[in-house]
Amino acid sequence: MIFQNDFGRDQRKHRRKRGVILTTQGSQKLFAARSQTELEENSGKRYTLEAMSDRTGLSVDTIMKVLKCESGVDKQSLKSFFQAFGLKLEKDDYDFPQSQGDQVPQPPFNPKPPPEVPPEFPEGQVPLNSLFYLERPLIDTKCYELILQPGVLLRIKAPRRMGKSSLIARIIHQGDLQKYKTVYVRFYMAEKAVFQSLDTFLQWFCASITVELGLPKRLGDYWDELFGSNISCKIYFEQYLLQQIAEPIVLGLDDVDCLFQYPNLADEFFGLLRTWHEEGKNRQIWQKLRLVVAHSAEVYIPLNINRSPFNVGVPIELPPFTQEQVQDLCQRHKLDWSNQKVKALTELVGGNPYLIRLALYHIYHQRVTLEQVLQTSLTSPGIYSDRLQAQLMSLEQEPELLLALSQVVNSQTPVELELVTACKLQSMGLVHLQGNKASVSCKLYLNYFRDRLS
Fold it and tell me: Domain span at residue 437?
């Protein structure tokens, strides 16, 4: 008698092909749903195997088999896994694993299979649902918790390309999940004319936030020349925006150090932010405002200590990636590297998140090998060519920076620099600072600029 299973296979074939595995389509569907659930229900953090076991009711061993797609599991287990993430298991989502006799001969060169979702090219903010955003758990989680506190001010500081914008986007997303109103202001989007007067700048600032909140602009009703720009701006927030919006407002301000080149404007604006934060300690209406301020450099313009927002609130600094974090990223790119390989790449770029991801992106797509990245020559900087040339062009616009970096890369010990110069080089990610003493931030910059600036 022929025994029929769910798929109409005879008993002999059933013994040979035990269970089912995910197809590429099924794997991608499950990964996308899992990532979305992690984003919405787990603060964007990846579920551990134990957490997925609790959620699905499946053993850790079964979960590992499902995710690896190498050995079969019973169809009901796969269906339970899908249902746990709001999915329905379709016929095209699974297949039978091949037995040894079924395997098709492979060509001599068989590249690693792609991950469930290929890495996106590293530029700007990392997308919210990206597998390749690497959390700094103590920092990210702390920010998500702090943004719930009335009147909080978070100050995020790190050189360029270290992940400030990606973190701000996730803090704002946490606000969205709490049903707060959220606004993200990028100062580099404003035209230069906006920064030529305090009045114009503050009106642009208020108008930008008003539009983001979906309210009609009513600047004329609250702006009074007699009171001046600062007080008019404060009145506009207090009597209009904060009155009209019942929920807390998360206000993210990115790249505020672009205001440093306008010292008088910056002094007034930063003093205004400090005033708003102080108001939140005493007045309920201002407690609705939660400020997130990001900047690339130490503050190198003179600010009244009692008017500066950079000595109050909660400071958040983004460090370079550690070797362990780079190993995590390698695994997400399906790269099985030894500790020595991970260490070599980490040291080459000083743990810079952007430079790490750029290398892994090109290695994943088999455009270069790790060995080629490590052997980047001075005459052919390879995948980092655009970045290095852009840095060199920026330095050539400011001769004092060029001279200062030349001193740093040609010295065996940290070099004491003038404060403004040191801060600008730090904001570009070219040096590390201990006080005013600068040392080059990584081997890549040391080798390249030592050659170019000798």
Answer: 324-452
